[in-house]
């Protein structure tokens, strides 16, 4: 991607640190019930893991993964928002120029990173509103995880 703002080495290192923290946080959940827990409990554990990473490192990882998403799935039909770290537009199709795009996906940084590395599934996070997805083509399940 020509307009890369996060150097690949810095982004990869930040993502690895975040992935380790998120994995450790999920490991604290009881093994026998880990798959049966409601999405909000899994999300809470992930958010705790995200708090263990320095804020700038977390944001670097999010921005890096968003850049990778935009490079892999170019377009402007869907906006993926991970406030306050960043947002990108992806997928070919409808183009919007002002206001809210026709399809918006939004979640917090820890959830986004867990999805990008495959620690949790899209369907689980979507099931109880941990991920907000509205509009046509907002199902990111087929393109996640990225790594």
From TrEMBL:
Superkingdom field: Bacteria
Pfam families: SCP_3
UniProt domain Bacterial SCP orthologue: residue ranges: 55-146
The protein's name in its UniProt record: Bacterial SCP orthologue domain-containing protein
Protein species of origin: Boudabousia tangfeifanii
